[in-house]
Amino acid sequence: xxxxxxxxxxxxxxxxKTALELANNxxxxxxxxxxxxxxxxxxxxxxxxxxxxxxxxxxxLSEIFSEALNVRVELDSVAELRPQTKEIEGESGRVYTxxxxxxxxxxxxxxxxxxxxxxxxxxxxxISAAIKLRHRLVGAFRTAQPHKPVHxxxxxxxxxxxxxxxxxxNFSKIVAGKHGLKDLQVHVTLIxxxxxxxxxxxxxxxxxxxxxxxxxxxxxxTDAKVTKCSEDHIVVxxxxxxxxxxxxxxxxxxxxxFENYPDLFTLDERKRVIVSEYxxxxxxxxxxxGDAANTPFAGMAQTAxxxxxxxxxxxxxxxENKHLLAYKPKKPEYVVPxxxxxxxxxxDEGVIGGIEAWKARRQADKWVLENFLVYDLxxxxxxxxxxxxxx
Length: 391
Ligand SMILES: Cc1cc2nc3c(=O)[nH]c(=O)nc-3n(C[C@H](O)[C@H](O)[C@H](O)COP(=O)(O)OP(=O)(O)OC[C@H]3O[C@@H](n4cnc5c(N)ncnc54)[C@H](O)[C@@H]3O)c2cc1C
Hints:
Layout: E1 4-9, H1 13-22, E2 28-34, E3 38-40, H2 45-49, E4 58-60, H3 61-64, E5 71-75, E6 78-82, E7 87-90, E8 95-97, E9 100-103, E10 107-109, H4 117-120, H5 127-142, E11 150-155, H6 159-179, E12 186-191, H7 203-215, E13 219-221, E14 226-229, E15 233-236, E16 239-242, E17 245-248, E18 252-254, E19 286-288, H8 301-319, E20 334-337, E21 343-347, E22 350-354, H9 355-370, H10 375-384
Parallel strand pairs: 1-2, 1-9, 2-5, 9-19, 11-12, 11-17, 12-13
Antiparallel strand pairs: 3-4, 6-7, 7-8, 10-18, 14-15, 15-16, 20-21, 21-22
Helix pairs in contact: 1-8, 5-6, 9-10
């Protein structure tokens, strides 16, 4: 029987989900090319940055694919695509041939060329960055002079910025308690260029989120543009502000890899790949899914998972000579934790804030892990997030 060689590039939500959906299917040999031997759950990364165990967000690929006999994981990064010969070359020099190529390489951080931002700010794009941020926070708290506040600025009031900003004050209290720090003062400022926080969500959600942020002591600046960052200052709307730690959550851009192949990939204004309703780039053999693809609701883990499932389903249909199904986008639900056991939840029915929304968010975190692991293992990882890390 003909077995199709599927090569998937990128071991994030979209790529891993596609590979899992094809696992142990007799029609496919799957190769997953990824630079890391782990899957990382970004949605709970802010928790690792503010003291919770990183074991909640890091899942070894060997756990995910332990039973998948037809999935081979190659630790490599793609350096070159050769669509004419259906080959790709990795940075290792290894060459992989495919019948079908799935590009699920996500986004990369974008500092918009703001002077000093790449050098001095922290981010949370992967677990190493989140742990580095935690180390910097703990270091700043432990070395703070009495009665001299530690100033922390978060740039970007999207969900990630709101989540991390609202958890820092509480984390400072935990660190102070653990290390006997008296008189520790922390000033957290959330800075947003748009006129409101959570600008991509409804105005009702923004209002509720703003009130909650105020209640828990986060200083919010909107219509505020950061134009420079140094070791201990930032410039906002032309004014210099002290910032002992600056956290960048304001921008990302599509992986620059696509720009090297203009015949193969047509890009939108955000450099994401424009795909057909079957996720094809400009080739019947090359597909793009997840954050890198211009599909409705791209930029969300839920969408990347949905993309992966839809594409894998079509691969199976193709192998069984069934007609292919056009992609039907699915609107994600938005739940943003804002300090402690409190969150704001936006659905088609409306907006709610409070502990019930927080519980919904924790269930959503578990649901994400259940997409990749059997229930017991997913539950084990999820529960690890209730424990504190060493700091
Ligand atoms: C801090 C943070 C918090 C978030 N919170 C949420 C949330 O609460 N809810 C939600 O729905 N979404 C959230 N998101 C968005 C969500 O994580 C993304 O939408 C999702 O990761 C997209 O999946 P993906 O597979 O396209 O990309 P990714 O998951 O980013 O995976 C891309 C993979 O490709 C690999 N790669 C890159 N280049 C190459 C190469 N040349 N060769 C091989 N591999 C390569 C990368 O190493 C990476 O593993 C968050 C994102 C961040 C950064």
